[in-house]
Specification:
Blueprint (H helix, E strand, L loop, with lengths): L1 H15 L6 E7 L2 E7 L4 H12 L8 E5 L3 E4 L21 E2 L13 E4 L9 E2 L3 E4 L6 H11 L7 H9 L12 E7 L2 H7 L16 E4 L2 H10 L9
Antiparallel strand pairs: 1-2, 1-10, 2-9, 3-4, 4-8, 5-7, 6-8, 6-9
């Protein structure tokens, strides 16, 4: 009996220090905050985002491009010192991240994806990203989008169901790397997407962000209290 309790204690102790299944970051703004799970299926983007976050790069950058029913974009290094009305979106860090397209990762509402320029490899910006706001689609609208904006690309039924209920931006699938998703606080996308913007889509009032990495302890607690996260294969 004594050995039984010893084994039980060891198992419990190991479980309490088990490594989280995923990495998570918190994006905090004056318009709310959210927690984003970074996908293991896109390791280059995940590690790059974690590296920049660890360095504090994103702190003080702005959500500089906001389009309701589409997305909210941030991470331009030039936005840290931008003057009112200054055009933003061209800032970079001098390198790109190789595209990591996965059929299972798509532009549903709340996903984190990488912005990019028009390079032929569709490689991602080192720092600029967006969170999808999007809209819901009817079956007819999805078919029209698929034919006219996606070159006839097939959309799996499981993804169609999400585009019809949760919403998203399907025409971006296969063109921009999706590498994470909001798992807590998705309402931040609605809030920021509804702010007043200039003709260049920059918010009239600055929306700076602070991005931090959840500790292993925080990540374990999140996975413990959020059904599906620990067993998520993404």
């Amino acid at each position: 009996m004594r050995n039984f309790f010893l084994v039980l204690f060891i198992v419990s102790a190991l479980a309490s220090v088990a490594k989280p299944k995923h990495s998570y970051v918190k994006i905090k703004t004056s318009n709310g905050e959210c927690i984003v799970m970074l996908y293991n299926q896109t390791p280059k983007h995940k590690e790059n985002f974690l590296k920049l976050t660890k360095e504090g790069f994103y702190n003080g950058t702005l959500f500089h491009r906001v389009i309701n029913n589409f997305m909210i974009q941030g991470g331009d290094p030039d936005s840290k010192t931008a003057t009112p009305g200054q055009p933003l979106g061209s800032g970079d860090l001098g390198y790109r991240v190789d595209a990591e397209f996965r059929d299972s990762l798509f532009h549903k509402k709340g996903v984190l994806a990488a912005a990019r320029d028009n390079n032929p490899e569709k490689a991602s910006s080192a720092s600029q990203f967006y969170l999808v706001h999007g809209k819901t689609f009817t079956h007819e609208e999805l078919e029209k989008t698929r034919i006219t904006r996606m070159n006839g690309r097939h959309i799996p039924d499981s993804q169609k169901a999400i585009y019809k209920t949760l919403g998203g931006t399907p025409h971006l699938d296969g063109n921009y790397t999706v590498y994470g998703e909001i798992v807590q606080g998705i309402s931040i996308v609605d809030t920021i997407a509804s702010v007043a913007t200039s003709p260049t889509d920059r918010p009239i009032e600055n929306i700076p962000m602070e991005v931090t990495i959840l500790s292993k302890r925080e990540a374990r607690k999140l996975e413990k209290r959020t059904p599906g996260l620990k067993n998520n294969a993404l």
